[in-house]
């Protein structure tokens, strides 16, 4: 009899209670994870911006500022830790957060770690040179134009990712190749020498630090051909012996568990360990 592979998410649980671009209360999201049979999940809400100028367009539209968002984030940490305890007999919850890499993050993110004491963090980039690239195609094109084209955008992204990994040593590296989000030719582009060299350099650093890579299934939910991590990068990660674990990157109850079987099958077919190693937690 084949052993059932457990559902887990190393990067998930964004809720409309604490971030403008998600939906639903966090407790309802936790209940949905339990109902879907998840063994453990990292709730990894976005960090607040250090300054108003770093806010996302939806936060600006909602009338927020960086102080409001910092206070909301503090409430998130309290609520997530409450839910972790309340539902401990039904699911293992890790209270985490997802980083940004605006100017000044090298001090700001460790300060947040010290203040809020997460179980672990997900190291992600949604900006390049302080330019938001994943919010919309217009933002993506603007960033590429400012930086001198798609190839330069990719190179800058992977250079900044490398520095983020060095600076923060996050337990989990989030959606490694998110920079491909609006690029129809990404499968060719990522294999260009100057880009591929940066990719392999970053993978080697991830292996050196023994970090987990988030196999981010939200890409499938949004209509992409494959998750983040792309197949050619995933193959290289396997060759290097890097740990890769599913992350649903859920932004509401309706996202939870979707495409999990597809993601598990991909990782199983590549030979990854489906006993799903947990992230290394901070020791305070």
Task: Explain what the structure shows.
The chain is α/β, with parallel strands linked by helices and 284 residues long. The protein has one domain: TIM Barrel, CATH 3.20.20.140. Helices cover 44% and strands 15% of the residues. The chain has helices at 26-35, 57-61, 66-86, 105-116, 137-147, 150-168, 186-189, 193-209, 218-221, 231-240, 260-270; strands at residues 7-12, 38-46, 92-98, 120-123, 127-128, 131-132, 172-173, 212-216, 243-247. The strands form two sheets. A seven-stranded parallel β-sheet has the order 1-2-3-4-7-8-9. Helix 5 packs across helix 6 (150-168), helix 6 (150-168) runs parallel beside helix 8 (193-209) and helix 8 crosses helix 10 (231-240). The chain is globular and about 50 Å long. The chain starts with 6 loop residues before the first strand and ends in a 14-residue tail after the last helix. The mean pLDDT is 96.
Name a few traits of the molecule.
globular, 284 residues
Brief summary of the model shown:
The chain has 284 residues and is of the alpha/beta class. 44% of the residues lie in helices and 15% in strands. 46% of the residues are buried.
